[in-house]
Amino acid sequence: MSFKEIASKEKRIVSGHRLCPGCAAIPIVRIILAGTDKEVVASCATGCLEVATTIYPYSSWNIPFIHNAFENSAATISGIESAYNALRKKGKIKKDVKFIAFGGDGGSYDIGLQALSGAAERGHDFVYVCYNNEGYMNTGHQRSSATPYGAHTTTSPSGKFKKGNETFRKDLTEIMVAHGIPYVAQASLSHPLDLYMKAKKAFDAKGPAFINVLAPCAQWGIKSDEAVEISEKAVKSCFWPIYEVEKGKYKINYKPDEKLPVIDFMKAQARFKHLLEDKDAIEKIQKHIDEKWKHLIELEKIGE
Amino acid sequence: MNKNKIALTGAQAAAEAMRQINPDVVPAYPITPQTQIVESFAHFVADGKVETEMIRVESEHSAMSAAVGASAAGARVMTASSSQGILLMLEILPIASGLRLPIVMNVVNRAISAPINIHCDHSDSMACRDLGWVQIYSEDNQEVYDNTILAQKLAEKTELPVMVMQDGFITSHCVEEVEILDDEKVKRFVGEYNPETSLLKNNATFGALQLPDYNFETKKQQSDAIERAKIEFLKTGKELSKLTGREYNYFESYKLKDANYVVVSMNSSAGTVKSLIDKLRKKGKKVGLLKPVLFRPFPYSEIKAALKGKKIAVLDRSESFGANPPLFAEIKNSLFDINAKIQSYVYGIGGRELLEKDIENVFENLMKNKFEEKTRYVGLRE
Amino acid sequence: MSRLKGWKEMRKAGLVEPASSLAVKTGDWKVFKPVVDHKKCIKCFRCVVFCPDLCIEMKNEKITSNLDYCKGCALCAKVCPVKCIKMEKAR
Q1: Dihedral of the CA atoms A237, A240, A242, A247 (nearest 10)?
Q2: CATH code at B294?
Q3: Nearest-Cα residue of chain B relative to residue C18
């Protein structure tokens, strides 16, 4: 597994898309789609990834691709996978095909949660990737249930009385673990070979696989060259732990020797700047991160 | 012709047609009064009588979403729903027609909330009349069976989704004699589904974003397609006629030609009207029925030709609040440039029964020349 | 710019050919462009994999940025472990 190996694969997504300069979503998609050599069919929820890659009459997708609606990427792929099974049984299709559904955090945590849950529960053989930029970014940065506590978004702005998003993030990765599917993972662009390994495992898994990948966005208030650096800070501060759950068994893929204080992650982004002097808020956030990390460590110990 | 007559409910008739069509994928979610279609079909799957992949989705929205995915992947897809289920699918219905996917859906007509009501009226299918689906209404169990088979072929010919309606409980749950074709005959009639482009066969992008520079043209293509579906409906009907011996037209004309007083009514109530017409005809009254079958695309000129010179009462089983009821609106549109005497009636909302004496009143008003602008209500307590 | 197609000529249902976005030269978005010091380059392929526009590639043993698509985000320069990519004004 190497960068060269990933780079040598045929491009399943190509240049000419209109995503922002420096957008993390595209390298994430590239790395993941390199995780199988079999044919892949993709469905994608409405959002940055879909809109900016399919502005008629141009498409950046080099694989069969369908955009249906916002909340039904997983339901759509369920239909495609079932069609494949039906046609394969009838002998109308002989080739091996893999199925992948993409959704942003909006289309996965919020409006798309039902379809994702249904598809996972039914056990379709597919990979679901949530490219998580922690907000409804395509429409200009509104909050989602993946938006971290305190983050300024246009619908949870920092003003005179309110100081940004008022709830802690929903834990979709844990929700997916609770579905009992063969493979669940949380990944980051800062650890690309780990992401690649996860993509391979996800495609190889028999049944539903879910990968939640942090995708830093320009609207977090970072520069166009900072996506990887911010991802790394997210992982090192345990704001975004990278781990896998294979058949219910937890494995944390990266444990920092010394946790980066979460404020170092926050001060690198404009969406938290109103909180940087707020000691109480920082403490609250740090405490939450620490508790979740501790909990994850305990989960890893189960079954040892 | 090898045909069998068996006793089936309307739901079973739909399921039987589905069994013979043997679709590749059926994503379905239960809702009263459609449930028996899905249950009957699930039994066929469990007994290996079909080769269908049945997806027990977690909502109707996902049912239609999965149907779009499966159809785009090149599979033959069928589903069924009613009322709130149709409304929940609403977002995806125009996606199905916009992507030109030949999905066939049985709609068991049921009232929509609020208030919640599980009985028959046409508000569910009427709510989606503008979404680009071909709409066919069925009076009885035989028509449900015939129309479902016709719909499958029509959908694939026109590359448009089709919905086949039947009245909830009245048709869906009542047993009638249905003449079933041989499995082989249906199989040959619908043939193999081989779409031009599909996700499993071709590398293509479905569902791209079309900005103002292109969107209009793609929608025009869709509009053109559903217009052409009018002719295709008759052609497909003629082909099916060869197998069943029954005719498939835009509407049924029951003792219409020489009638002076006509009731226009769809689905099961047409049966009640016919029964009353027979009685009135014996008394020498020149009464008749026009029963619309194809509602979308709407056959304006054919309706005009059939109703010219007659006094008409249109019975709607749904309202378009704040405007003319849907069927009345289309009939009135058909006749706008001739001096037609036409009266709007709304009946049967929330499953309210339509009695022969109510229809007799309607005919009497026509005969007494009692017309008014506003909609009258049949069977409503004031 | 060529005449846009009418509804009778367009493919049905808004279907699009794969990889057709290669016709869109997003390179005119950029203010800065990457310049590689090939002597320092260790050919690790990180820049290739991270590039958000998939436009930096190994060509004839040299890392080359396709300026037709490069938006000048500078991510390649940032992730390079030997810092052999410098950003220079594109125009």
Answers
A1: 140
A2: 3.40.50.920
A3: B204
How much is the pLDDT for C1? 53
Do B42 and B184 lie in one domain? The reply is: yes
What is the full DSSP assignment across chain C?
A: -PPPPPTTTSPGGG-B-TTGGGGS-GGGG-SEEEEE-TTT-----HHHHH-TTS-EEEETTEEEE-TTT-----HHHHH-TT--EEEEE--
Which value does ipTM take for this structure?
A: 0.96
User: Domain total for chain B?
Assistant: 2
B126 and B263 housed in the same domain: no
Could you read off the pLDDT of A251-294 as tens digits, one per residue?
A: 999 999 999 999 999 999 999 999 999 999 999 999 999 999 99
Dump pLDDT digits (tens) for B158-214: 999 999 999 999 999 999 999 999 999 999 999 999 999 999 999 999 999 999 999
- Looking at the structure, tell me whether residues B233 and B358 fall in a common domain: no
Q: Which structure tokens are listed for B204?
A: 């293509």
Which residue in A67, A79, A117 is closest to B73 by CB distance?
A: A79
Among chain C, residues having any CB pair with chain A shorter than 8 Å are 14, 16-26, 29-30, 44-46, 48-55, 57-58, 66, 68-69, 71-75, 77-79
Same domain, B181 and B265: no
A31 with C49: Cβ contact below 8 A: yes
Average pLDDT, chain B: 97
pLDDT in tens, B348-373: 999 999 999 999 999 999 999 999 99
Condensed to tens digits (0 to 9), the pLDDT of residues C31-73 reads 999 999 999 999 999 999 999 999 999 999 999 999 999 999 9
Q: Please report all neighbours of C, defined by 3+ CB atom pairs within 8 A.
A: A, B
- Indicate the angle between helix axes B60-72 and A73-89, nearest 10 degrees: 50
Choosing from B200, B223, B244, the residue where a domain stops is B244
Confirm whether B382 is domain-assigned: no
Domains of chain C listed by start with CATH number: 25-89 (3.30.70.20)
- Residue C11 to residue B305: CA distance in whole angstroms: 37
Please check whether residues B270 and B311 belong to one and the same domain: yes
Domain count, chain A: 1
CB pair distance less than 8 Å for A11 and C25: no
Q: What is the CATH number of the domain that holds B19?
A: 3.40.50.970
Residue B205 to residue C6, Cβ atoms within 8 A = no
CATH number at residue A71: 3.40.50.970
Verify that B90 and B48 share a domain, yes or no. Answer: yes
Domain end, chosen from B226, B244, B262, is at B244
Contacts of C14 in chain A (CB under 8 A): 56
For A100, phi then psi, to 5°, come to: -135, 135
User: Taking a C-beta distance cutoff of 8 angstroms, is the pair A188, A195 a contact?
Assistant: yes
Residue B138 covered by a domain: yes
Query: Which residues lie across from B345 on neighbouring strands?
Result: B315, B376
Instruction: State how far the Cα of A168 lies from the Cα of A288, in Å rounded to an integer.
Output: 8
Strand partners, B4: B180
Taking the C-alpha atoms of residue B268 and residue B168, their distance in angstroms, rounded to an integer, is: 10
Which of chain C's residues have a Cβ under 8 Å away from the Cβ of B208?
14-16
Q: Strands A65-67 and A97-104, how do they pair?
A: unpaired
**How distant, in Å, are the alpha carbons of B202, B275, B294 from that of B232?**
27, 31, 12
B311 lies in the same domain as B282: yes
Which residue range forms the structural domain that includes residue B107? 3-244
Which residue type sits at B200?
A: L
Q: Taking CB atoms and an 8 Å limit, are C14 and B220 in contact across chains?
A: no
B133 Cβ partners below 8 Å, 6+ apart? B93, B96, B97, B105, B160, B161, B162, B163, B296
Name every chain A residue with its beta carbon within 8 A of the beta carbon of C58: 7
Distance (Å, whole) CA A130 – CA A112: 10
| Chains touching A by CB (3 or more pairs below 8 Å) | B, C
